[in-house]
Amino acid sequence: MWLPSQLPGIEEAMRGSGFQGDPKDLSDLSRPPMSAVVSLGGCTASFVSPQGLVVTNHHCAHGAIQLNSTPENNLIVNGFNAATMADEVSAGPGARVLVTDRFERITERILARARGKTGRAYHDAVEAASKAAVAECEAEPGYRCSVVDMYYGTDFHLIRQLEIRDVRLVYAPPDAIGSYGDEIDNFMWPRHSGDFTFYRAYVGPDGRPAAYSPDNVPFRPAAWLTVSTEPLAEGDFAMLAGYPGRTFRHRTAAEFADQVEWQLPSRVELMSALLAAVERATAGDADAGVRYAAQVASLKNTLKRAQGELDGLRRSHAVAERRTQEAAMLAWLPSQPDAAAIRADIDAAAEVIASARGTRERDQLFGLMQAQTQLLRGAMQLQRLALERGKPDAEREAGYQLRDEARIEAALRQAQRRYAPAVERAILAELLARHRALPADQRVPEIEAVFGADAASAAAALEALYSTTALADEAERLRLLAAAPPEVRASTDPLMRAAATLQQAALRLEDEDKARAGELLRLRPAYMRGMIGHARSEGRAVYPDANSTLRVSHGRIESLQPRDAVSYAPLTTVEGIVEKHTGVAPFDAPAPLLDAIARRDFGATVDPGLGTQTVNFLTNLDTTGGNSGSPVMDARGRLIGLNFDSNWEAVSASWKFDPRYKRAIHVDARYMRWIMARVYPAPQLLHEMGLPLDGADRAPAEADGR
Amino acid sequence: MWLPSQLPGIEEAMRGSGFQGDPKDLSDLSRPPMSAVVSLGGCTASFVSPQGLVVTNHHCAHGAIQLNSTPENNLIVNGFNAATMADEVSAGPGARVLVTDRFERITERILARARGKTGRAYHDAVEAASKAAVAECEAEPGYRCSVVDMYYGTDFHLIRQLEIRDVRLVYAPPDAIGSYGDEIDNFMWPRHSGDFTFYRAYVGPDGRPAAYSPDNVPFRPAAWLTVSTEPLAEGDFAMLAGYPGRTFRHRTAAEFADQVEWQLPSRVELMSALLAAVERATAGDADAGVRYAAQVASLKNTLKRAQGELDGLRRSHAVAERRTQEAAMLAWLPSQPDAAAIRADIDAAAEVIASARGTRERDQLFGLMQAQTQLLRGAMQLQRLALERGKPDAEREAGYQLRDEARIEAALRQAQRRYAPAVERAILAELLARHRALPADQRVPEIEAVFGADAASAAAALEALYSTTALADEAERLRLLAAAPPEVRASTDPLMRAAATLQQAALRLEDEDKARAGELLRLRPAYMRGMIGHARSEGRAVYPDANSTLRVSHGRIESLQPRDAVSYAPLTTVEGIVEKHTGVAPFDAPAPLLDAIARRDFGATVDPGLGTQTVNFLTNLDTTGGNSGSPVMDARGRLIGLNFDSNWEAVSASWKFDPRYKRAIHVDARYMRWIMARVYPAPQLLHEMGLPLDGADRAPAEADGR
What we know:
The structure is a homodimer of 706-residue chains.
Chain A: H1 11-17, E1 37-39, E2 44-47, E3 53-56, H2 62-67, H3 75-78, E4 80-81, E5 89-90, E6 97-105, H4 107-111, H5 119-138, E7 143-150, E8 155-164, E9 166-172, H6 175-178, H7 182-185, E10 197-203, E11 217-218, E12 237-242, H8 253-282, H9 286-291, H10 293-315, H11 318-332, H12 339-357, H13 360-371, H14 375-388, H15 405-414, H16 421-436, H17 445-451, H18 455-468, H19 474-482, H20 485-489, H21 494-537, E13 551-556, E14 560-563, E15 566-568, E16 571-573, H22 574-580, H23 591-598, E17 614-619, E18 631-633, E19 639-646, E20 664-668, H24 669-679, H25 683-688
Antiparallel strand pairs in A: 1-2, 2-3, 3-10, 4-9, 5-9, 6-8, 7-8, 9-10, 10-11, 12-13, 12-18, 14-15, 16-17, 17-20, 18-19, 19-20
Helix pairs in contact in A: 5-21, 8-10, 8-11, 8-16, 11-21, 12-21, 13-16, 14-21, 16-18, 17-21
C-alpha cells in the first residue's frame, strides 16, 4: 500500500512486475492520472469519461439504488439504466464524490505546540493543531479537509478534497448480478459477482460543488481512466489505487502477541457468549428475534472474522516473525546516530503498551455495554451530548459535534426497531457477570454503583431499570435529544440516572485512553524510525499503515493454493454462474443473463484462452476495507477491473501481508462490458467510454453526440 | 464395474489406460490373482502375504478394534500392533473373511419353474429355486453360498465362498490417523486419512474354516498381492477390485425421472420435516436429545446424501441422457429379431413401473412409520415374527428366519436407549398428518382404523396408545419375543393390537410389492437385452449393475475440477495433515506423526516429484458402497493403495457415472509403509510383505524367519 509519492523509489520492483509506464507519472495523487481515483467516503471509485462518469462497486451504491426504488420499480431487483443524462437520478443528499486536489506535509505545524508535552497534553495539542488546520482549509467552500497521520505520529499531511454533492445514479445491474452470491460467497473465491455500478458527478453551472439541482451540469474531471479492450491472463501485471481504511502492520511485537494471544481469542469467546445470550433471550419470541436479527448477524460476522484473522495470523506465524524483525532492528540500532534516545523512546512506548494490558478486560466489557445495547447506549449518548453541548463546537468531543447530531438522532430512532427489553437485559447480565469476575482493581466502581456487586443485585437492578425507564418510548428519547442540557442532566428517568453515573467512568477511562494515545503518538515515531531505518539498511522501502489516504499496490494476476491439494484458478467464468444458480437468492441469476450464457453470446469480450466469458479475477494486490470499488489497471494504466472483495485466507492481512495467502478479488472489466453490451444493454455508456457497442473489438460506428 | 469375465472383451480399453498385463489373467474371480481379493461382508479386503495377512480399511475394522479395547488400553486411541502372531487378537465371533472359489451361471435352473408364470408366482418360483440352490451348496460345511441376479433377472449365478471365521487383528494405527478428518472430511477431497488396518485369516489345523481357537493356524491363500515400492503420479494407470453393493445405472428413463423428480426431492422434504419434528419434541429435554442423537444423525445423513444425489443427477442431466439413450435403443430395436416380443415386454415393464407411482407416497409413509419408530416397529416385528414362526424356517419371510432372531432381539433391546414417548408420538403425528393429506384411494384403511381420519383422532389415539402400552418396558418386549405365537397374537397391549391391525396392511402392501417385483423380474430382461444389444451394435460393452459380486474397474490417477476455477490435485501430502490439525478430534494428529512430519523423516517412501510424503490419492475408478478396503493396483497388478471414500460430487454415481465428477479416494500404500516404518513401526509386517524395513528402497537386511 504505497503512497503515490513512494512509487518512483520502487520503480525497479514495479518494472519487475511488468509495469510499462513511468512511476513518476503516478507519484502525485492530486494530479492526473491519479486524480481520476476518487473517494466516495468509505468506498473508492474512478472517473471513466470526461463527462464525470464514475464507476464503483454495486455494493457501494446499494443505498442510492434502494433510495430510488419504488413499489412499482424495485431497482434492487430490476437494476437501473438511464437512457439519457436527463434520466439519471440523485444518489441522495448524503452521496459524495471526493476529488483530492491537495496533499501537503504539515508535520511541523501539527507538532509545534506538542513538543515538550507528554500524555494527554501531547494528544490535545496535536488534536487542536489538526482541527485548526482543517478549519482553515475548509474556509474555502466546496472542500472537505483532513489531517492524516503517517507512521504513527511521525508525519502529518493536510488533505484537501473537492466535495461533489450532486451524485447521480447512471447504471446498475440487478442485484442478482451485482451481488450474485452475496453473504454466502463473501470472502469465498471463486466468486461470480458483477459488482459494478455507474454514477455521474454533477456541479453547479459555475463548475463548483453544489447540492442537487436540475440546473447542475456534469463535472469535467482533470483525469479519467480508459477501459482496456485487451484480454487478461495469469501472470499479467496489475495495479490498484484506492483509499484503504486501516491496517496494523507496523504494530510492535508486543501488540502482535496481544492481538493473537488475547484480543482475538477473547473476542471469539465473548461474541459466542453474547450470541448464546441473545439466542436464549429471543427463543420462542419471533418479534424479538426480528428485532435482534441485524445485531445477531453483526455478532456472527465479528466472530467469524475474528476467528479467520486468528487462524490466519497463526498460520503465518505473525507473532514470531514480528519478534524476529524487531530483534533484528534492535540489534542494528546501536550502530546508528541517536541510538540511545531512540531506544529510550522505544522502551517507553513498550511500557505504555504493556500498561494497557492491565485494564484490557475492563475496557473491552465497558465498551460492549454501550456497543451492544440500544437503550443504555442511547441514555449515555444523551448525557454525553448534554455535556458536550456546553462547549464551542470546535472543542466538543469527536462524535458529538454539530455535524454528528443527525447521526445520533437516527440511532435514537432506530433503537425503536432494534430493541426488546428482555434481550438487552440478557446482554447486560452476561457482561455484568464477566465484570464481577474481574480482579477488584479492574472493576469499575460506577458499574458497581449502578448494578451492585453480585448477581442478585444485578438482576434486581436490571429489573428495576428496564421496567421503569421511559426511554423505550421513541418520543421520550427524541424529547431528551431536543431538551436543554440542564434539563437532560436533571432527568429522573432511572436509566438516565444510571447513564449519568456511568458517564463519570466513561470520562475517566477516556482520559486514561487519551493520555496513553498521546504518549504513543509521541513515542511510536522512534519505533517507526528504527524499523524504517533498519529496512532501508537492507534496501527495503516501508509504506505507512493504511489511513484512508490514496495508496497504490502493484502485482500480478495470480492463482491461489489455499490448502494442500487445492488450487484456485485466477479467472472465473460464466459457467460458474450456471453451476451456482439455484433460483433462490443469492444464487438467482436473472433470465437475460442465463439466456445470454446459454447462447454463448460473448462477442469480443470472450476470453481467447478460456473460450468463454470471464466474470471475476484474482490478483496478489494489497487491499483492505475501503478499497471497495478501487480501479484495477494494467501495465499501461488502463482499467481492467474493479476491486470488490478479498479471499477468506486474507482476513488477517490487516496485520500481516502473507504473499502465499493474500489475494484481492476483482470484477473483470470485460464482464462489465459484456453485461452492458449483451445482457442489459447500455450502448450510450459504452460509447461515452469509447468502447465498442456490440462487444466487437472496434470503435462504435454510430454516435449519439451527447 | 466390470465382471472379471468381461475383462478380455475390453482389453483394448484397458491397454489404452496403460494396463500392462493380460486381462485374461484377471478373468476368473475364483482363481489367482483375483482370489486374493476377499469380502469381509460389507467391506472388501485382500491377502498381502502367503500367511493369510489381510489388509482393509481402518473403518472396516472399527468394531474389532473397539471389541479389543479396555479401559486400560483403548485401541481406538492408541492403535494396535501385534509384535508376534501370538499377540494377534480375535476380531470377534462375527468377523469373516470370505474367499470366493466358485462362480457358476445357473440361469436355467433358477428360471425353470418360473417360466410361464407371472407376478407374485414368478417371484416366488425364482426365490424358491434360489433358496434350494443355496441350501444344496451350503450342505458342504465351511462355505457360504448365494444366488445373484445379473442384469435384473437376465442371468443368475451361484457364488460359493470359503467362510473363514477366525479373523484376528494384527495392526491398526490410532483412530486419529485411521480416521483423520472422520465425519467432517467424509466425502470431502482433499482427504488425509491413514484408513488401513491389517487382519490375519486363521483356519483349523486341518486347513478348514473353524471358529476361533488357539490351535488354529494362519490360512494359506492361493493368491496374495505384492505391495508396490514405486512412486505414483497423475495419469498413472490404476485398477481396483472389490465387492460394490448396489447401483441403479440400468434403470429405465421413467425410473430416472421418478428418482430425480420425486424420490429424492420428497426424501429431502420428508427428512427435513422429521428432523424438525424431532427437534421440536426434544427441545429442552436433554435426555430425549441424547436418545434420539443417533436417529437425528442418520436423518441428517440421509437428507444430505439425498440432496447431494439430487444435485449431482441434475448437474449431469441424468434424466435427459437416459431418455436419449432409451429412445435410441427403441429406434434401433425394430431391426432386430424378436423385436416385437422384446418391445412388448419393455412396454409391459414400463406399465408396471408406472403403476408403482400411484402409491409411492403411501408406500413411503407406511415404510417410515416403521423405519423411524422404535416401539411401533418393535410391536410390528413381534407380530410378524409370531406369524412367520408358524412356518418351516426355509419358508419364512427374509428377515424373520431363525438366523435373524438375534438381530431382532438386539433391536428390541436397543429401543430402550433410543426411545422417548413424546418424540415417537411427534414423528408419528407428522407422518399421520401427511397420510391424511393423501387422496382417498391412496390412504391405508388400517392406518385410519388405528389412528382415525382427522387430526384430533390421531392425537387422541397416540395419547391413548403411548400412555397405556407396556412395550416401553424392555422386559415386556423380550417376554413377547420369547412367547408362543398364539400368546403374542392374543396380547391386549394397545400397541400390539395396533400392530396386529397394521400388519394386515403390511402384508397386503408386501404382496402388491412382490407381485410387481415378480413382473419386473420377468419383464426387465427384455429392456436389458435391448440396451445391451444396442450398445453392442455401437461397439460398447455393458456391465451389470453392482450386486455385491466381485467387480473390476480400470482407469487413472486423476485430478478433479469440481467447480469453476477450483482444481483438486490427485495426491495429498502430510503438509495437509499439519494444516488441518487443530488438536481437537477429528483433527488431532498424534504427536509421533507430527514429529515425524516435522523431522521430514520420509525415507524411501517420499514422493520424488513432490519432495514430501503423500497420504491419499484420487483416481477416476468406479466404486460404490461395499468397495471400502478394495485394493488399488498398478499396471502390473501390484498394490498401490486401498479405496476408502469417494468425493461429494460422486454421490449420484450409483445412478450415473459422470466422468467429469466421479472420483474414488484411496490411501496411498506409501503412506501405509511410512507409518509402519517410521511412525508406529511394524518391521515384522513390512518384512512379511517383502518390503524394506526402514523405508529405504531395498530388501530388509535382517529377517526373523517367521
